[in-house]
Each structure stands twice: as C-alpha cells, then as structure tokens.
C-alpha cells in the first residue's frame, strides 16, 4: 500500500467473503480508474463494491476461501423409439356393422400405445382414410409415428368363381371384382387368397 504526495491511497483491494455454494468463485474485483493530475503524475484508485463472478481454475492467484468441485452431471439419454417398438405392422380388421376398420398393431416387440389418444385413434377408421398416429409418449426419441393407410371396405368387392366347368376337378379360378367405387389408390391394393380346410 502506498500514498502519493497529497496523501491519497493508491492501491486498495477489498475481498469479500465467499457466499456462493456453487463451484464458481466469486472474487471482488474492480477495474482501475485512472485520472490525470495537473503535476503530470497519474493515480490508480480501486473502488470497492463491483463484483465479477467467473468460473476460475484453481491455478489462478485470486484470494478465495472456496474449494472448487469438478463433478459434472450427465443428462439421462432416452432410448431409441425404433429399438423400443421395433418394426410395427398394422393389421386392419373390418367391422361389417359400422363399415369401418379397427387397426391392430403387431410386431416382434409387441408394440403398444403409450400416448393417451393412440388407442382411440386406432378404432373406427373410415375406409380409404389416412392419418399419422404417435405411439410413444416422450419415453424414447424420436417419437414413433406410424402412418395409417386404411384399405377400402370388403363390401366394395365380389369374389367370383371363374373356373371353367371342364377344369373344375383339376384347377380353381377366383377373381375379385370391384362392386362399388372408392377413393383409395387402386395401385396400393393387393389380393390374397387363403384356403382353409
């Protein structure tokens, strides 16, 4: 600590006690204020009261009574929705009374709806409708969204026997004929035959 010819204190540093429990150090630090004197000398005066809070490594020479902690919390990572739900296949079940479909989810991981409205969205689907349904509810990332592409109702088709009488003992011919018009893309429709005993 020194004084000038006129008795002013030129270096005064005030350190306040540490009150922040976080690993950052609070150091009392004030920038210098320089004023020119008439006699050509300069004076550096430190004004107490300004605070600068910075994270400081332990190698800095600031006076402090706080120890620093290097413990870092890592966020929990969510699993992948593709891993959680696996491949999801949608099977549409036609309801003759309502002329609508219900969608059942199938897959190797037995997918189930987590989202509250998901189960409702899989019921009473009008033919040829399209919609996206979110299965997940924030438990994984990114959300698992399936696209429902509802087929036309079975009432739109007739299965006809086209087997010629002469070949009836050795072969069978079946043909689907469209009975009613519908708005579904005809290119997406495939026909499957299943024989049951």
Automatic annotation (TrEMBL):
Gene Ontology molecular function, alphabetical: protein tyrosine phosphatase activity
InterPro entries per UniProt: Ptprc
Region (Disordered): 1-56
Superkingdom in the source lineage: Eukaryota
One example of a Gene Ontology biological process annotation: T cell receptor signaling pathway
Bias-annotated ranges (Polar residues): 27-56
Protein name: Uncharacterized protein
